[in-house]
Amino acid sequence: MSKNNTLGPLSIIMTYLGLLLLLGATITVTFFELGFWNPVLNLSIASLQAALVIAFFMRLRWSTPLDRVVAATGFFFVLIMVTFTLSDFLTRGME
């Protein structure tokens, strides 16, 4: 029995509309001065956009558990690198 893991037109359109909605949220956040929370919100929105692309367009939703573990491991290591970069940047003295 073969699995049908193709995206239908409705799934593609809904994912596209979700990405456009998140793009609008990113643009909206840039117009408000939220201080420390601006980059936090923008990175959160970007993570949601990446999750949509990974889940649907890269077909990770229908892949094997090993593929999911490999993708989660890659995402985890990117998260570690971003955390160390932000901690270095935020602890430097501003001159």
Please render the helix and strand layout as text:
Layout: H1 9-30, H2 37-57, H3 65-91
Helix pairs in contact: 1-2
Structure description:
This protein has three helices and no strands. It has helices spanning 9-30, 37-57, 65-91. It folds into two domains: 7-61; 63-95. With 95 residues, the chain is mainly α. The model has no long low-confidence stretch (mean pLDDT 87).
Question: Which key phrases capture this entry?
Answer:
3 helices; 95 residues; single chain; 2 domains; mainly alpha
Summarize the structure.
The chain has 95 residues and is mainly alpha-helical. It is 74% helix and 0% strand. The longest helix has 27 residues, at 65-91.
* Secondary structure category: mainly alpha
| Strand segment count | 0
What is the succession of H and E elements?
A: HHH
Largest sheet: none
Radius of gyration: 17 Å
Portion in helices: over 70%
Distance between the termini: 65 Å
Q: Can you tell me the number of structural domains? A: 2
Low-confidence stretches: none
Outline: flat
What is the subunit organization of this protein?
single chain
Q: What would the average pLDDT be, to the nearest integer?
A: 87
Please report which band the strand proportion falls in: under 5%, 5-15%, 15-25%, 25-35%, 35-45% or over 45%: under 5%
Total of helices: 3
